[in-house]
Amino acid sequence: MDERVAGLEEDMRDVKSVLSRLEPMIVRIEATLTTTLPHLATKADLADLRSEVTREISDPRTEVTQDNSGLRPELTQDASSLRSEMTLKLADLPTRTYMWGILVVLITAYGSGLAALAVLK
Fold first, then answer.
1. Which of 4, 6, 72, 98 could form a disulfide with 94 if both were Cys (CB 3.0 to 4.6 A apart)?
2. Can you tell me the distance from the alpha carbon of 12 to that of 18, in angstroms, rounded to the nearest whole number?
3. Confidence band of 68 (pLDDT split at 50, 70, 90)
4. How confident is the model at residue 63 (pLDDT cuts 50, 70, 90)?
């Protein structure tokens, strides 16, 4: 019986040492939660925010939709004139095929030059 009591006393010393190490950590965690939790949003806060944002977005959307009805012909005309200008400017630029051809010619010339150097040495 004395051996069992001695074993239990030894186990209790281990438990007390573990608890003495855990207590300061628990106090720090509790302090962190106490300072942080009051500032966090609740589900109700988020629901209120969502409805407010939805309402604020829908009002300008309605205004923009109403304003766009008069702008549509003007935008169509501006878009077609911009398309014409871009077509004219892009016609002056070299095509992708042309640029690849130039690159192939340059690489071939470089390779030929290297081959000529190799022959000369």
1. 98
2. 10
3. low
4. confident
pLDDT (0 to 100) of residue 117 = 84
Residues 102 and 96: their CA atoms lie apart, in Å, by 10
For the chain, the helix, strand and coil percentages under 3-state DSSP, each to the nearest 5: 95, 0, 5
Element (H, E) at 72: helix 43-91
- In angstroms, the Cα distances linking 35 to 23, 27, 28, 31, 32 are 18, 12, 11, 6, 5
Which tokens in the block code for residue 81?
A: 């004139």
The CA radius of gyration of the chain, in Å to the nearest whole number, is: 39
Task: Please tell me the distance from the alpha carbon of residue 81 to that of residue 77, in angstroms, as a whole number.
Answer: 6
φ, ψ of residue 41 in degrees (nearest 5): -80, 145
